Amino acid sequence: MSKAKYSDPTVETVALKLNGGEYELCFTFGALATAESYLRRMGHADINMLRSFDFSGLGASDIAPLLFAAMLPKQPKTKYEDVAALVSFKSFEAILEALTQAYVKSMAEPEKNEVSEHADGASD
């Protein structure tokens, strides 16, 4: 999977430390769409990544897909199976906090100079 597909240089990342590893999380529309498509091909026919953002109705089956989508922009070679293995009762609180922060940051308006710098189609 190509990093450019999910990249949005105006979205800030959130660091998540789990099991000795550190991951950068952020949400982009491209990453959500890619994760949803991939998971549907894997047999998760009812997955809807946008509905997963309703954290008040978040179910156990929503955590790994959201974490997967949040990892794709900065860790494009991430495998869903590896992400799912990171989710446990012990890691749940840290994951939920990081996902919430990543969601909030993804919705923030970029500063005007950030938008103009990337308006010409350049990416990192």
Write the layout of secondary structure elements.
Layout: H1 3-6, E1 14-18, E2 21-25, H2 29-41, H3 60-71, H4 80-86, H5 89-107, H6 112-118
Helix pairs in contact: 2-3, 3-4, 3-5
Provide tags for this entry.
124 residues, two-stranded antiparallel ribbon, 6 helices
Describe the model.
The two termini are 16 Å apart. The protein is mainly alpha-helical and 124 residues long. The longest helix is centred in the last third of the chain and has 19 residues, at 89-107. It has a two-stranded antiparallel sheet. A hairpin with a 2-residue loop joins strand 1 (14-18) and strand 2. The protein has helices spanning 3-6, 29-41, 60-71, 80-86, 89-107, 112-118; strands spanning 14-18, 21-25. Helix 3 packs across helix 4 and helix 3 (60-71) crosses helix 5. It has six helices and two strands. The radius of gyration is 14 Å and the shape is globular.
